[in-house]
Amino acid sequence: METARAEAAPAAGVSDLSTLPGPRRLPLLGNLLEIRPTQFHLTLEGWNRKYGDLYTFRLGRTPVVVVGSAELVQRILRERPKEFRRWSPLQELIDEMGFGGVFSAEGDQWTRQRRLVMSAFTPGQLRESHGTLSTITRRLRERWRASAARGAPVDARRDLARYTVDVTTAVAFGLDMNLIERGTDPLSHQLETVFASLNRRIFAPFPYWRHVKLPADRALDQALSEVRTRMLDILRTARAELDRDPARAAAPRSLLEALLVARDADDPKARLSEQEVLGNVLTLLLAGEDTTADTMAWMLHFMALRPDVQARMRAEVDAELGDVDLPESPEHAQRLRTIGAVVQETLRLKSAAPILFIEACADTVVGPLRLAAGARMILLTRQIGLKEEHFHDAASFVPERWLTPRPAGAGKHDPRAALAFGSGPRVCPGRALSMVESAMVGAMVARDFDVSLVDPARPVKELLGFTMKPEGLFVRFTPRRR
Ligand code: HEM
C-alpha cells in the first residue's frame, strides 16, 4: 500500500504505535471508563501534559493517536483530503442522522460541495447581507434592553443560539426566521439535541441505537424529524420560486437557490443529489449555530470578568462609530481592532472546536510514527494555542497580543498556532461570517450595555457537546452609564 507523507521524508527512526506513551488501559474497554464525553477535550489535554505531544489511548479496542504538536497538526490538516480525512465513524453517524454534507463528505463529493458552499461566504455576499445582519443584531439588542429594564438575568448562550440561526438562515438561505422576536421557536433546542446525541454516540462502545432506542435516541429521532420537515418546507418554497422565475437559475440569490440549481445541473460532475441538497442545508444550520453562539457567549464571559476590556471596547466603538449604532459594513466591523482582538483571544482560549477527529486514508508516517490506513487520530488544536512556546503568558486573557504593531518585548506570538477554525483546504468556510457576527454583537454590547456575571462566585465550566460551550453562564445587562 502507498505511504503518504506527513513528514518531508520518513525519518530513519520511524516506530509504530506500540512505542507511544499513554494512560494504562483495560483489555476490552480500553480507556472508556476514564472518559466523560462532556469533558473529553479536558481529559485529552491533561494527558497531553503528562505524556507529551504524541501519545495513544484506546476507545474500547480502537487505538487512537493524539497529536499536540503545531507542526504535525498543520501538516496533517494541509494534506487533506488526499492523505487524511475526518473519522469514518463520524461520517457514518452524521450520514445516519441525515445531515451528511460538506462537513462529512470526502473525495470528489467534498470537492463539489465545498465549491458551492464557499460561494455563500464571499466578501461580496457578506457585504450584501450586512443590512440583514444589522437588523438581527438590533433585535437582539431590544431583547436584552427588555431584560435590562426588568433587571432579569440573561441566558446569553440561548439568546445567541437564536441569533446565529437567524443569521445563518438569512445569509446562506435568504430567509428571515426571526427566532429572536418569536422567542418560543423549538429549532435551537432541536439542534442542541442533535449535537448532544452526536457527541454521546461517538463514545458508545457499539451502535446500540440500531437495535434498541433509549429515551435520548427517541428524542433525537423526534428532533431530527422536526428539523428535516422544516427544512424540506423551506426547500419546497425556494424550488417553487425558482420555477416561477427560471431566470434566477442563472444567477442564484442564495446558497439555497445555488444548491437547488446544482441538483438539476446537466453536468453530472456538478450535480448534487436530493439528499446532498438537504444534507448541506442541515450542515450549515448546525455548523453555523453553536460554534459562533458559544464563541460569543465566551466573549461576554470575558467582558464580564474584565471591566477594563469593556472600557477599551467602548472607547473604540465611540470613536469609530460616531453617530451610527452599528458597523455599517463588514469592512467597518473589521476596523474595530480592539473588538477583533477580543474575539481572537476568546477563540484562542475557548475554541468552540477544541479537538479535531482525523483518520489516515493510506499507510502513512506522522513525525516519528508509522500509521496504517484507517488509523484514528485526534488533533489537540486548542491546546496548541495554550502553549507558552507559541504565546507568551498563554493561560491569560490578553487581547492586546493580537494588535499590530506589537510592542517591543511583548514576547512570543505565533498566529499560526491559533487553530480555532482548523487549517488547510478544509478550514472553516464560515470564519469570516462568524468574525463579523462576533464583532457586531461585541460592538452592540460595548456601546449600549454594561455586562456583568449574575453570580461571580459560581464557576463557569467548559462543556463539550460536540462544540465547547460555557455551562452556567448567566449575565446581567444594565443600560450603559453615559
Ligand atoms: C466561531 C465560529 C466557528 C468556529 C470556531 C468554527 C470552527 C470550525 C472548525 C474547527 C472546522 C473544521 C476545520 C478543519 O477541519 O480544518 C469547521 C468546519 C466547517 N465550518 Fe465552521 N466554525 C465556526 C463558524 C461557522 C459558520 C458561521 C459556518 C457557516 C454558516 C461554518 C461552517 C462550517 C462548515 C460547512 C465546515 C466544514 C468544512 C469542510 O469540511 O470543508 N462554521 N468549522
CATH class term of the domain at 1-97 and 354-385 = Alpha Beta
| CATH architecture grouping of the domain at 1-97 and 354-385 | 2-Layer Sandwich
Task: Calculate the terminal CA-CA distance, rounded to whole Å.
Answer: 69 Å
According to CATH, what is the topology of the domain at 1-97 and 354-385? Uridine Diphospho-n-acetylenolpyruvylglucosamine Reductase, domain 2
Radius of gyration: 23 Å
Give the rounded overall mean pLDDT: 91
Strand order of the largest sheet: 3-4-9-6-5
How many extended strands?
A: 13
What string gives the helices and strands in order? Answer: EEHEEHEHHHHHHHHHHHHHEEEEHHEEEE
Name the ligand types.
Answer: protoporphyrin IX containing FE
Largest sheet: 5 strands, mixed
Number of helices: 17
Supply the helix-strand structural class: alpha/beta
> How much β-strand is present in the residues?
5-15%
